[in-house]
């Protein structure tokens, strides 16, 4: 049966141009061509195989990761890949490694926070990987509260040096990826102290290991922090611990773009506005949202294909059973996640544009939109990563028992994904930042200050707090304007209710703390509105390809109505819709699922993932699941011998009732 | 600082008798004494250590599991432990092993389905572990739909034997625990065929491996199915694959309590009613609900203690930061889970009673309550396992970054727990069974048939579909009768709405399929009502101990109001409460959290878990988290050398720009 496509029948049912949808998904014809070529290149490279990962010990896995990183770098240079191609290459290698932090945090941070001179010195070294950098911020006792970091960098005017020190156990750097074993350098964050005065947290470039023999430099204690969730997942990464015992670095290794320490030890702000640094944060969070749609789409691709392969119940007289994808319970759990993958893709695309836009504004010294951009990226990071983590686990459950096997790919995808809910801002902490911004925006409404960007709907507060949804029949729920207004009404009413509750407190900070749970819910409502509205905006563009736009319209409606159903309490309690309208939305949702059904496989094919990248027996492109599950089983080390290791010592004496005298 | 209790201050704040709460949690003073003694025995046994599990390879882990099982059996015999003590012992060993299936499935199934003669033959062998049994039901292509199993057992009248065969790849047995490497025998399920006629699925005792050398018997292909979620978790279990190539077993190895095959090959029902077999299912699911509260309480214990240790933000002028447990966002996520642990414990306790009750009724040939009991156990299994799986992951997130470390205990707890959502009935399939029963109950209301047990509230349908919740102020939400009526109204109104929607379909099965998502939601509403009502019933008992009942009352209210808040859409759309009342419930919830706060640590201490059993650095009883996290890190194999294995091959040439000629 080699080469047979078990899903061919499913593919033939598609009502749209899959190739054009691939272009929409990845962003452009050019991006599709490049990514497709590089994905196949990676998939065909035996050094980059992934299917043996879960059988490795931690040490083997880590060594294998070093090998892949070196091999990847070699191939990138040999093939003279462009930066775009190299970035796709690293993406498809799909194994967390020190290179992620080097390219994703160390380099961008020096670019953003280093002076021109510093950039000239350090970036060429980093670009050529003559040094390996990591980003050492989080400490054992300090994560979200960056201002609470304890590591100190004390200026010594005698030697023109900073002395880095870890004064307490809780000040040990803890978590930075690449730090444990690989990095030669770090951007390390420490409280700057000059002349006995604490100037708060600043970044410093610190060499950690000798470039000759990789041994830690004097005063530096460094190591790996140990096993993490999953058996592959992030265990390929050397998240590290680092302690400084009065380590000296030259003064010019403080990153001095926005603030400097002079030769005399004076702390001075430069003329570069601090706000410029936010650009990096917007960039990083924009990447995280894009990654969310990628992770989610992988999980959905696996679960959708397997749901078409798996059959259960529904056969009469020994006939063939029903494909589980045909059950409404399966559809109502799976299809909203498929729609979410597309929704997050488009909001991520929009964030990319927003980053470019805000960067231009910052460079023109226009900081006016920064708070809104900051709130919006923080909120979308929170919303999309939380939803994606939950969705991956839901997809695993949708694969029934077999989803629990490592070779389904889903356990590892979950384990490798979930840190996204915590790193770069804990998701709840971020929602509260959004809420703070929303409360400020609401409080300024009476003054006539016009809300900008994603909050501009708040400028129509008067209308939105008294408007009534005019859905009367199921089809009314297909109108974008109706959906949008319901989401806007719900979001603003929740914000205003919070603001009113807050106003009853004499101490605003106490009120904020007391009501934080409600505030977080209001922030979620605001962020869901952004996702829906950006999806709707996307559909206002010209989208070529037979049936492509129709499919996207269907997905957009599914996403929106699913969010309404899931958060019905919000919509009803704010009076944004009525119970009857909620019930109509739910009815509409069911018929949208039926419309999606014949296109389901083609819609996940449009992600254009290779079997190598998916890494799932259940999600194989050809749907040939069972023979491959069976074949994979025999590869487990436990099957190397028919009688297991330990039989003589621990099973035989037990069965023979001879345990009494055994030494166990 | 050895021996210092960092949580002493928290413990001193408790407003109730913790020792009495321990009794309530575990069920009796006697159970507390026994479980406490055995827990300490296990914790102090060096063979039973767990902290090194995640560093083992699969083979090492499995061998270690065999060792623990043999050692445990030896100790149980040496110490002449009673069955109660032995069962606590196995519980605290806390590592999935073949013994779970031997004691939990193989033995009970022979008891339930074997004739007296069969029991006399097989049970003594099983009790003395002279044979190791497993339960081989699920097949590669068949899980939920037991009637779809493909394995055949064909009676051969010439030799008076059954011939077991695996006719297709998808008929391979797949998943049974203990099958892969350890079991000598199985209860295997196969389609019984006599004289060319298929009599459906029956159970057979089949020897798999030689008792002399443990080699598979002729015609049997058996092995392990490979790695599963997590790195420890269920990888200590040899979930197996099994194929029969015309394997012959004597006729008397068909389990013949309810149906027999005669010497002539005639299939005859015995006079034992088939319904008796349901007793085993009720028993197993009752155990699963009890396990849910145990798993949930472990996760909550870890997250609660660590939330009291962890501090973040809120310090002014460098003072000490705020304990994260004092944040309302933390409380609103954590405390409902603490309440759920108690709620599930009490509903589990009640299910234990129900099992005894139904067993007595079955023995008296009274099958009247069986459908209700079946629906109720299926629904509670689904509800509690789904909630627990989600809650463990939520607890992990509540521990921030450090929850992602294996030694937090939470990743492994999650990975080892989640299969409970799938085994013994997929949770969604079970909800649909409940829904089917609810629809039947509703349809019989007009005929005057009185609903029994957990559905008896449906007898008051007339009142419940038109009653109005009369909550006017926050305190009204503390009245059990008010809470109960709101839950009853919501549940019955959702059921009746489904029934009405169903009645619009000419084909009921089609209607059921189309509306299955709504039906599942109605089933959840019904099951949540059961949990709430059993908690309220528990509080009507006499509960000794200073402040114990008050704490439980608080937890009960938190559970109920949290469910209302989370499912507000249901309560509002059915008109069971108003938006204003929903908002009051939420306000009340906040003040209940404040009441719980000083008792939080004591309430998790009442679970009486040893540090060994918890297996979490973050959840340590003494709260001494950071020094222990730091110390644990250095034990990782990656830290055996300062310079990592692979440096010479993969890092040095890269840094020195000498990759070009390297062989990688």
From TrEMBL, chains A, B:
The keyword Methyltransferase does not apply. The keyword Lipid metabolism applies. Residues 480-656 form the Acyl-CoA oxidase C-terminal domain. Residues 17-132 form the Acyl-coenzyme A oxidase N-terminal domain. The active site is at 424 (proton acceptor). It comes from the Eukaryota. It is found in: Peroxisome. Keywords: FAD, Fatty acid metabolism, Flavoprotein, Lipid metabolism, Oxidoreductase, Peroxisome. It holds the Pfam family Acyl-CoA_dh_M. Its cofactor is FAD. Residues 278-439 form the Acyl-CoA oxidase C-alpha1 domain. Pathway: Lipid metabolism; peroxisomal fatty acid beta-oxidation. GO terms for biological process: fatty acid beta-oxidation using acyl-CoA oxidase; lipid homeostasis; long-chain fatty acid metabolic process. GO terms for cellular component: peroxisome. One of its GO terms (molecular function) is fatty acid binding. Residues 134-247 form the Acyl-CoA oxidase/dehydrogenase middle domain. FAD binds at residues 138, 177. InterPro entries: ACOX_C_alpha1, Acyl-CoA_ox_N, Acyl-CoA_Oxase/DH_mid-dom, Acyl-CoA_Oxase/DH_mid-dom_sf, Acyl-CoA_oxidase, Acyl-CoA_oxidase_C, AcylCo_DH-like_C, AcylCoA_DH/ox_N_sf. Belongs to the acyl-CoA oxidase family. This is Acyl-coenzyme A oxidase.
């Amino acid at each position: 049966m080699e080469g047979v496509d078990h899903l061919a029948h499913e593919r033939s049912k598609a009502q749209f141009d899959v190739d054009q949808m691939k272009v929409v998904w990845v962003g452009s014809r050019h991006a599709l061509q490049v990514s497709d070529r590089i994905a196949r290149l990676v998939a065909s490279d035996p050094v980059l195989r992934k299917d043996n990962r879960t059988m490795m010990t931690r040490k083997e896995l880590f060594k294998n990761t070093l090998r892949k990183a070196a091999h990847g770098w070699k191939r990138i240079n040999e093939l003279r890949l462009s930066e775009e191609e190299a970035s796709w290459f690293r993406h498809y290698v799909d194994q967390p490694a020190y290179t992620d932090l080097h390219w994703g945090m160390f380099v961008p941070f020096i670019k953003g926070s280093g002076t021109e001179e510093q950039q000239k010195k350090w970036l060429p070294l980093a670009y050529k990987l003559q040094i390996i950098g990591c980003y050492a911020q989080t400490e054992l006792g300090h994560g979200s509260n960056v201002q609470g970091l304890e590591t100190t960098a004390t200026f010594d005017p005698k030697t023109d040096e900073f002395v880095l020190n870890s004064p307490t156990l809780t000040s040990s750097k803890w978590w930075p990826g690449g730090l444990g074993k690989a990095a030669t350098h770090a951007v390390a964050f420490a409280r700057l102290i000059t002349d006995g005065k604490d100037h708060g947290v600043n970044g410093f470039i610190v060499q950690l290991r000798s470039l000759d023999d990789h041994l830690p430099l004097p005063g530096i204690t460094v190591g790996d922090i140990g096993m993490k969730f999953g058996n592959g997942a992030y265990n390929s990464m050397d998240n590290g611990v680092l302690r400084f015992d009065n380590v000296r670095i030259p003064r010019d290794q403080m990153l001095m773009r926005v603030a400097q320490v002079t030769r005399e030890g004076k702390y001075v702000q430069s003329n570069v506005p601090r706000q410029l640094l936010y650009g990096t944060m917007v960039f990083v969070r924009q990447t995280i949202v894009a990654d969310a749609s990628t992770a989610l789409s992988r999980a959905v691709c696996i679960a959708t294909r397997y749901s078409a392969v798996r059959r259960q119940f529904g056969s009469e007289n020994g006939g063939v059973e029903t494909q589980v994808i045909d059950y409404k319970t399966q559809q109502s759990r799976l299809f909203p996640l498929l729609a979410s993958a597309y929704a997050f893709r488009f909001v991520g695309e929009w964030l990319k544009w927003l980053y470019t836009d805000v960067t231009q504004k910052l460079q023109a010294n226009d900081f006016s939109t920064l708070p809104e951009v900051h709130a919006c990226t923080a909120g979308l990071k929170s919303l999309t990563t939380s939803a994606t983590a939950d969705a991956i686990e839901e997809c695993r459950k949708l694969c029934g028992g077999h989803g629990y096997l490592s070779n389904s790919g889903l356990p590892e995808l979950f384990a490798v994904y979930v840190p996204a809910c915590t790193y770069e801002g804990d998701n709840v902490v971020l929602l509260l930042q959004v809420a703070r911004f929303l409360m400020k925006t609401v409080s300024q409404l009476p003054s006539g200050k016009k809300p900008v960007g994603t909050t501009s709907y708040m400028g129509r507060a008067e209308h939105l707090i008294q408007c009534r949804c005019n859905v009367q029949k199921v089809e009314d729920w297909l109108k974008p304007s109706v959906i949008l207004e319901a989401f806007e009404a719900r979001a603003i009413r929740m914000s205003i209710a919070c603001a009113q509750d807050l106003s009853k407190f004499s101490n605003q900070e106490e009120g904020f703390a007391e009501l934080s749970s409600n505030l977080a819910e209001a922030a979620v409502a605001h962020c869901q509105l952004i996702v829906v509205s950006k999806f709707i905006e996307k559909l206002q563009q010209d989208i070529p390809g037979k049936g492509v736009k129709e499919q996207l319209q269907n997905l957009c409606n599914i996403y929106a109505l699913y969010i309404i159903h899931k958060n019905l309490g919000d919509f009803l309690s704010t009076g944004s819709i009525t119970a009857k309208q909620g019930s109509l939305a739910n009815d509409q949702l069911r018929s949208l699922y039926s419309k999606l059904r014949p296109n389901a496989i083609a819609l996940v094919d449009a992600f254009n993932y290779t079997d190598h990248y998916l890494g799932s027996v259940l999600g194989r492109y050809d749907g040939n699941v069972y023979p491959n599950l069976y074949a994979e089983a025999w590869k487990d080390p436990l099957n190397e011998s028919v009688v297991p290791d330990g039989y003589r010592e621990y099973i035989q004496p037990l069965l023979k009732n001879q345990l009494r005298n055994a030494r166990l």
